[in-house]
Structures are given as structure tokens and as C-alpha cells.
Amino acid sequence: MAVATSDSILARSLITDRRSTNFGLKNEVCRGKVVPCRAGGKVKGKGKGRVEVKAAVQIGGLEEVKKAKEEMGLDVVSEEELREKGFLGMRKTKLVCTIGPACCSLQDLEKLALGGMNVARLNMCHNTRDWHRDVIKKINQLNEEKGFCVSVMIDTEGSQIHVLDHGAPSSVKAEEGSTWLFTAQKLEGSPPFTIQANYEGFSEGIEVGDELVIDGGMASFQVIEKVGNDLRCKCTDSGLFLPRAKFSFWRNGKLVARNSELPTLSKKDWADIEFGVSEGVDFIALSFVNDADPVRQLKNYLYMRSSRSTRVLAKVESLESLQKLKEIVEASDGIMVARGDLGVEIPYEQIPTVQEEITRVCREMNKPVIVASQLLESMVEYPTPTRAEVADVSEAVRQYADALMLSGESAIGPYGQKALSILQMASSRMELWSREENRQSILHQRRLGVSLPDRIAEQICNCAVEMANNLGVDAIFVYTKHGQMASLLSRNRPYPPIFAFTSDNGTRMALNLQWGVIPLLVELSDDDMEANISTTVELIRRKGLLKPGDVVMVVSDLTPTHINSTAFQSIQVKTVV
């Protein structure tokens, strides 16, 4: 049945026409036999009662389905979690880990992957390109040989005006009362108490008495003397000084404005981006984005390089980016809330509400959002987090952020795997509590689609999630080429998990960042939707992950290749027998 309008979908699920119903399904499926269902509960029974949803058909006994040429593309971590917790127990919030010296071995990367790492972040501020290449090679090896599905993100350094380096390979402790020299002169080695700035004009406009803040408050200094372009500073708040740290100046409680004419993307950034493209990374995160122009510039570059599968994320970490938030979100493929640097530019007390607002805007505009920086900061040094940090993590999950990110906790801390397990446990518990308390987030349904097909797809996904929640289905199956309908389903934060079947590996890796989406790489037919459903359901059944009585909702955005194909923009509800 073709989709004529989208408004009637809530009253009935649309099913494909009878030409597509003879691929190994039981006879009653071919006759369109309906299984009655009850709103608010599972689809059950075989009676003939009148029902609102007309597509609750039985599937099972798929002897005629050809044996799949390849195993189902479900990653080993999701498969194990599904076996252990069931569909509704699967974690929805995605986890990002920054890779550094503390976790760059093959064994440590595998432990992080087993612990639930969905995306590995490489900070291009640190280490060499050879080091990053080696880490990417190891992650690809784990994906191919061990059955993981870990995406790779590189994070650009940003304008050189923000960067300092002490020359040592690891962090250095700055003690209160110690005196340090900050200079733009090129240094050999790592002279004690000496910091090199990467921008010659770093001290322009800076006065004696100004405060120099490292990495959003990791350590603080006061300028006690200005000698040419160099600054001599005394440490006023002790703390860790990371390699290639970011810094800012304050005067009388206000941020000192810097040279904003420097480009967002430096020469080093472009070289790092070229490196990332050549290595096939899945995400590129841009630092210090103040407007949408650099995002568009990079996306155009990737298009010309035929690297359209690489997604561009914008980091919101400045007052200017907040003022142009919506245009940045619209231009990008996702947002990272870099709370450390953002907290330098706005008052501390505004961070929670700003974080929630960014998350809301991203959901409305259907862009994934990562909450980053200082989630479990104490675990850089200590084996347990503070209770306030756990509450902070839970609040980000309550706000329905797509992903949480570890920075120094995993990159340089000795307890990275434990920090990841705490993120995993805290997010799973908060998701369960939200579902038990029926605290479904109310989302203002901002219309995204312009063309009629896009608007229909959007309405189908909005209604599908409402139906899935009301019917109590176990899982949502979506068949997608570019991930659009999978992301639209995710936007509505359904109770059941979303299994996104795609034949495009770039789409699979991109969906790794979407809330509640488990991406699977499988061969799909553009013309035979019922064969896609039968094959994938049987693959999951053979692994023992589907059992009789389980109910799945089926949605698709695959475009048929010829006019006689089944209408694919549809919703089906199927019961496994």
C-alpha cells in the first residue's frame, strides 16, 4: 500500500502489497492475517478482534530463506549485551573515549572496546601522526578480527593562539608559588619551568596582574613581569599541566579578548584533516568554531575529496559559538559540548542550562550531541569518582545527550577502563529509571523536511516511535542506506532499541554516535523489502537473539530502483512465532 498521507499513520500501520509477501513467510502472512494487539502492551494472540494497528503479522518458519552468505553484522559487544540484558536493557547513550599514552596498546584498546567504547577520539593536539596512524590501524584490526564496531574521530587543534606546550611527553605538575616563563621562542627539549606558546603574538595586550588560566582551570598563574613578548608568571592554583594545553587570559574577572582574525582552521589543522581523510576516519571535530563558515568549508572540501562518509562535528566552546548556535548546528553533522573551554568564557553557573539548551537544539535539528570535558575529572588521578561527578553524568543522560566523552580520564589516567565502566553503569541506570518513571522527554516537533518525501519520512518516524512505546514492542528494525530514518527515529528517543541495517559501512560507522541505534552491516535489496526483513530476522534468530513472541517494528527508507517495486516508506509490526 503506497503512502498517500502521513497523518493517518498513527491510526494504522502500512504494510507492503501482496507481491512482496511470499518470501518464506507463513501462508497467513500472504493473506494479510492480523494479530490483535493491545495499546500499551505487547502484541499477542491469534484472535480476530478489531484492532487499530493492522500490520501486526506473524513471521516465522523461514525454511525457504536462503542461507546468508555472511554472518549478521552485529558487533560482539551489542550481541553480548542483548543476550545478558534483553532488548529493553540495552544501553542507549553512546560512549566516546580519548585515546592517549595510557590506553594506546592493542590490549588496552580491546579492553575499552569490550567496555562499551563506541567512538575512539584522537586529539591532534598531542602525539605524532605516526602515533595516530598506529592507533587507527589497531582499531581497524580489532573491528575486523574481533568483531567490534568502533568508529574513529580526530579532533583538530584549532587556532594556534590558544595552545601552549612544556615540551615533555606527559603532564607536568605546577606547584603553587612556583615561577614559570611563558615564551614564543623555539625551545630545544623541555627546560624546567618554561612554557612555549605556539603563536608569536600570544602576549599582545596582556598586562602585569592579568590571570593566565590553563585548560579551563587545571592550573592558574598571575603575570608578574612582562619582558618583551615573554611573560613571567607565578602559579596561584596548582594543578596538572598537559602537553599542548589550551589557555586564556582574564582581567578583573573578565575574559581578555584575543585576536579573532586568525582562521579557525590553521595550516596544521588542514594537514591533520588530510591525514584523517587518507586514514578513513569517520568523524572530524573542529575546535573553536565561532560560526558556520569553517564547517561548510570543510564539508565542501570533503565532498570534493569524495569523502562524504566522513562526518563533521563542531565543538561549541566559545561565547561566539553560543551566539550563532543554530546556524552552526544546522551546518554541521553533530555537536560536541566542550564544557572545559566553554566554562572559561561563560560563568560557571550557566554551564548546566547552556548544556541542556545545546542538547535540546541538537535534538530538534536531528544532530547528535556529545557532552564532553571533566565528566569524571577526578579519575585522572584517583580510582573512584566524586558523587557529584556521577550526578553530572546522570544529568547529561537525563537530558538525552547522544554521547558522553572521556578526555584525560582515559588518555592519561591510570583508571581509564574503570572510568568507562562507571559511565556505562551510570548511563544504563538513568535510562532505566527514566523509562520506569515514564519520563519521556517532550520534544518540540520542529519540522525538518522540505520536500514531501522528506516530510513523510519524518512523520513516519515520529509516529513509529509513539506506536512502538504504546505497543511495547521489543525492538525497531530500520533498513537504511544513508541513515536518515534511523537518525529520525533516534531523535524521538524510543524505549526499544533501534537496529539499523545498512549495506554502507560509512553509514554504519556514523550511526555509532546516534542515541539508541545499533548499526548492522548487511547486504540489502533495493527492490525486495520482504526478503530484507526475512533474511535479517532469520539471521538474528539463528544467533538466539529473537524468540517466539518477540515483537518488532519495521521501518525503511530504501528507495526502490524501479516503478513496480513495493512502496518502502511504511511501518510494519511483526510478531516472531
Automatic annotation (TrEMBL):
Domain Pyruvate kinase barrel: 90-419
Any one cellular-component term (Gene Ontology): chloroplast stroma
Pathways per UniProt: Carbohydrate degradation; glycolysis; pyruvate from D-glyceraldehyde 3-phosphate: step 5/5
Keywords, ordered alphabetically: ATP-binding, Glycolysis, Kinase, Magnesium, Metal-binding, Nucleotide-binding, Pyruvate, Transferase
Record GO terms (molecular function): ATP binding; kinase activity; magnesium ion binding; potassium ion binding; pyruvate kinase activity
Signal peptide span: none
Cofactor(s) the protein needs: Mg(2+); K(+)
Occurrences of domain Pyruvate kinase C-terminal (ranges): 458-558
Annotated Gene3D superfamilies: Phosphoenolpyruvate-binding domains (3.20.20.60), PK beta-barrel domain-like (2.40.33.10), Pyruvate kinase, C-terminal domain (3.40.1380.20)
Catalytic activity from the UniProt record: pyruvate + ATP = phosphoenolpyruvate + ADP + H(+)
Pfam families cross-referenced by the UniProt entry: PK (PF00224), PK_C (PF02887)
E.C. number: 2.7.1.40
Enzyme class: transferase
Family under the similarity heading: Belongs to the pyruvate kinase family.
Protein name: Pyruvate kinase
Native species: Gossypium schwendimanii
Classification lineage: Eukaryota, Viridiplantae, Streptophyta, Embryophyta, Tracheophyta
